[in-house]
């Protein structure tokens, strides 16, 4: 092994970098760092972490220092076709900063920059739950909803690079206010934040007394984590909230399937960890909601398998050129 590809996933609070062997996509080394709140510090941290994972991979392989062939960078927001981050509620310091060119100048390497969930979708299509599937969508359920679209075996970027933001499909104009400034986006209902909101609403209606008791009667303090833990311990009110959640999740997935007819819909992000609480109900609601219902060829709804590394691995794979290199 004499070549390395490095993928970096920048989140709102954490950076994860992986060094992979481009011949077989094996992760040789990984490292985490904190995200910075200034662009200069962020770029310095990215340059550092590239060095850390390339040194680490060298130590693991026991060979002479391998050559870093390419670097991919996943950013949490909309990334235009030049690689510039244009909007990112959780990484404001990097908006309209030319991270790509500045990091390329430091590292002396070309860098591919892409939306983080698009990177994750690509990783799942190449190595994860969607391996071998040419038409799939990944939705990542976390604080919000991210998304990535693989169509005919290629990542869909859109005319300007902004494709794959299903979280901001408007599903209920009378719904709660979104971080984007509008009301009733899908992610206000079907993300971790949405789960908490559905829990608060159920508690205010008197339908989730167990949840309300845990927050001392202050329904506003109910968050997605609390609902998940309570549901896992069998609290009926929390389980009913997951029933509602599964409808909202299915509604958005049905919209996506009506538009794109994918073979597979994948659920990733933090809420994928408790998919047993909602996946089956989501499949049932999806069949009710999607156009044609039972008459159409079934679309699979499955859990993504690469977990929190999907974004970083996908960034590395996209930097390689979207194909594993046979050496
Ligand atoms: Zn929105």
Description:
This protein folds into 2 domains: 3-126 and 308-320, Nucleotidyltransferase, domain 5 (2-Layer Sandwich); 136-305, ATPase, nucleotide binding domain (Nucleotidyltransferase, domain 5). It is an alpha/beta fold and 327 residues long. It is built from 10 helices and 12 strands. The protein is globular and about 65 Å long. A hairpin with a 3-residue loop joins strand 1 (3-10) and strand 2 (14-21). Residues 323-327 have low confidence and may be disordered. A 5-stranded mixed β-sheet has the order 3-2-1-4-7. The site of zinc ion has 5 residues, from loops. Zinc ion (ZN) binds at residues 168, 178, 180, 182, 185.
Instruction: Write the CATH homologous superfamily of the largest domain.
Output: ATPase, nucleotide binding domain
The CATH architecture of the largest domain would be: 2-Layer Sandwich
How does the helix and strand content classify structurally?
alpha/beta
CATH class of the largest domain: Alpha Beta
How does the overall form come out from the CA principal axes?
A: globular
The CATH topology name of the largest domain reads Nucleotidyltransferase, domain 5
Summarize the structure.
With 327 residues, the protein is of the alpha/beta class.
